[in-house]
């Protein structure tokens, strides 16, 4: 074994360990902030929001938003914070401190109730730590890119205990490569990261499958629902892209803007306590059939709007779980409407997650990963992976057909 392969092998182990530490650290800090914001000791964020006073529900996210806004104002006035993709692709060393501080502010904002994903922070922190941990080795540029891309996927894997989902995220979305070196590195680093974070995450499945009666006809229903998933996914992407392009500038206005967004989610949580946080609460009640038709419709409308509001205010966070929650809310609306207004009976959890997979396939452009990630979040019966894959692939192909038509029309 030559020196290059030896150093790369050592770097793979270091990346996995550091990504696990990043996932464990962000999870601990996030839960601490959630408990402080809503003043609860046990249970989920949804339990904490439901049990807190109306004043705390409104003021907690507002204070967290103001603090995060102040932090981003001070950070951005001193140094630019690149996107993680740009930092990984750049030949120069990462701006590790800036990315780490930005990740910490994301955790603060999401932990205090912001409607943004929590997965951006561990991905950034894992990549920054990985860049630092491997900086002593003279790695080739392509090897360094593989390692940092896999670090981002491993950070995702660590916080949700989804080793396959984290590995495929690195392969299909971050690196877009199926080379043996990439696939092997992604699988090893994600598995290591999940194991290292286990003392904190306890390897708990994020969603608890209720084991309802299921039918293989769900596969056909998942395909039929793909136009709805496509509409929601495209609408979600366009709304988020618009708000990112028109966000508040990097001035002191970040403080009142993000605080106002926090106040909005806090006030609305009085009626819909599932809205605060990254979207796990929405997924939990969708899988647990805990939504009424009216509440599912309200969440379908409000969850993406609140996420867009935080982006418009200058906040930063992940988009995976807000998109998942929006898709699950749409699936719940469809399933509850069918069960209420027709003689048919369909599984609300299965339809909710199938629609979530379809929406995620559009927002991330990776149907295989979307299906596997959704399945790994809940670990339902294995054959439901076929249902989720049918929804994701059908929606993705329909999206591709519409894109080709639009491109053909514009060229004429």
Structural summary, described in words:
With 412 residues, the chain is an all-alpha fold. It has 18 helices and no strands. Helix 15 packs antiparallel against helix 16. It is found in: Membrane. Its main location: membrane. Keywords: Chloride, Chloride channel, Ion channel, Ion transport, Membrane, Transmembrane, Transmembrane helix, Transport.
Could you provide a short overview of the structure?
This is Chloride channel protein. This protein is mainly α and 412 residues long.
Write the layout of secondary structure elements.
Elements: H1 3-38, H2 45-51, H3 54-76, H4 84-89, H5 96-111, H6 120-133, H7 141-160, H8 163-175, H9 180-201, H10 218-224, H11 226-245, H12 254-268, H13 280-287, H14 293-312, H15 320-341, H16 348-364, H17 367-378, H18 384-411
């Amino acid at each position: 074994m030559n020196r290059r392969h030896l150093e790369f092998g050592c770097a793979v182990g270091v990346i996995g360990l550091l990504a696990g530490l990043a996932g464990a650290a962000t999870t601990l800090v996030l839960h601490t902030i959630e408990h402080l914001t809503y003043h609860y000791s046990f249970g989920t964020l949804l339990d904490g929001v439901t049990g807190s006073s109306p004043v705390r529900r409104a003021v907690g996210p507002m204070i967290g938003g103001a603090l995060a806004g102040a932090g981003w104002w001070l950070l951005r006035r001193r140094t630019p914070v690149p996107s993680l993709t740009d930092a990984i692709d750049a030949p120069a060393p990462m701006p590790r401190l800036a990315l780490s501080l930005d990740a910490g502010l994301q955790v603060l904002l999401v932990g205090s109730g912001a409607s943004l994903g929590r997965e951006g922070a561990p991905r950034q922190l894992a990549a920054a730590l990985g860049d630092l941990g491997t900086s002593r080795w003279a790695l080739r540029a392509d090897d360094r890119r593989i390692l940092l891309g896999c670090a981002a996927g491993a950070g995702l894997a660590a916080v949700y205990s989804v080793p396959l989902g984290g590995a495929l995220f690195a392969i299909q979305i971050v690196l877009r490569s199926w080379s043996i070196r990439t696939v092997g590195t992604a699988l090893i680093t994600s598995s290591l990261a999940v194991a290292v974070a286990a003392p904190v995450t306890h390897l708990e499945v994020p969603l608890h499958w209720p084991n309802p009666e299921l039918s293989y006809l769900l596969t056909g229903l998942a395909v039929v629902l793909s136009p709805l998933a496509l509409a929601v996914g495209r609408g979600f992407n366009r709304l988020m892209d618009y708000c990112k392009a028109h966000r508040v500038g990097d001035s002191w206005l970040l403080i009142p803007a993000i605080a106002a967004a926090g106040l909005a989610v806090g006030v609305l949580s009085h009626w819909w306590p599932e809205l605060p946080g990254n979207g796990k609460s929405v997924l939990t009640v969708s899988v647990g059939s805990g939504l009424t038709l009216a509440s599912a419709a309200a969440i379908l409308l409000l969850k993406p709007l609140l996420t867009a509001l935080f982006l418009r205010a200058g906040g930063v966070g992940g988009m995976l779980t807000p998109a998942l929650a929006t898709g699950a809310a749409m699936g719940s609306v469809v399933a509850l409407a069918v069960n209420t207004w027709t003689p048919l009976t369909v599984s609300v959890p299965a339809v909710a997650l199938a629609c979530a997979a379809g929406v995620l396939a559009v927002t991330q452009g990776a149907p295989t990963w979307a299906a596997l990630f959704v399945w790994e979040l809940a670990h339902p019966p294995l054959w439901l992976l076929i249902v989720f894959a049918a929804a994701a692939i059908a929606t993705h192909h329909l999206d591709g057909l519409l894109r080709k038509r639009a491109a053909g029309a514009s060229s004429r």
